[in-house]
Specification:
Largest sheet: none
CATH class: Mainly Alpha
Number of helices: 8
Number of domains: 1
Radius of gyration: 21 Å
Length: 223
């Protein structure tokens, strides 16, 4: 690449920035929505996998296995393009959020389940001896400690979701990647807009990593 070509790439990247930055809140919105919805769903799935009832364990294990064993892109296609054949039609926003939420819930459930299992059984027994019922033991003893254990993985899941939102561009959601594609369709210069989009994803991920480290240090001091 000569100097002139480099200048053209940088110019196209700079020109694409306003459009891409305008779409960045959409990317963040999808990631945060999937995380906020996926956390409680993942928690329920984790509890189901730890349940004494075989039916709950089996159903939740099947859900996790299916989601983790299939590509997110295929899941988006099934939800957005497949469900209409069953009479269920979703708009791109709902389809994208549902797909990301289900995917996040499956991975979060494994993180939460592992964190819960990492708490020594003796602490549960001690809580029971103090008169706490199972619900109180989970809420007051197990979950606060499990949250510290799970924090790095939860943060990594959110970072992964930010990048995974790029896949909803295939169902016409105008997020960061789709915005770059629209700019390219006008300018016929792909390198600059794609490079700018990549740098924005990198900046978001780096910022979230900093927040993760701050939270980890705070939790460590609290421990």
């Amino acid at each position: 690449m000569n100097t002139e070509q480099l200048q053209l790439v940088l110019q196209s990247a700079v020109q694409a920035l306003p459009t891409l930055l305008a779409a960045t809140p959409v990317t963040l919105g999808y990631a945060l929505a999937a995380m906020l919805l996926g956390l409680p769903l993942g928690f329920l799935v984790a509890l189901s996998r730890l349940s004494r009832f075989a039916g709950l364990r089996g159903a939740s294990s099947l859900f996790v296995s299916f989601i983790r064993g299939t590509p997110l892109l295929v899941q988006i296609f099934v939800i957005y393009y497949g469900l209409p054949s069953l009479g269920i039609t979703l708009n791109p926003v709902a389809g994208g959020i549902i797909a990301l939420t289900l995917n996040a819930a499956a991975y979060l459930s494994e993180t939460i389940r592992a964190a819960i299992l990492s708490i020594p059984r003796g602490q549960r027994e001690a809580a029971t001896s103090l008169g706490l019922n199972p619900s109180q033991t989970m809420r007051l003893v197990v979950l606060p400690q499990a949250a510290r254990v799970a924090l790095p993985s939860l943060s990594n899941t959110l970072i992964g979701l930010v990048k995974d939102t790029s896949l909803v561009s295939v169902i016409t959601v105008v997020e960061l990647l789709r915005s770059a594609q629209l700019v390219i369709a006008r300018t016929f210069e792909p390198f600059g807009p794609y490079l700018a989009a990549a740098l924005i994803y990198w900046a978001i991920s780096s910022l979230l990593e900093v927040v993760q480290r701050v939270l980890e240090r705070r939790f460590a001091r609290g421990g």
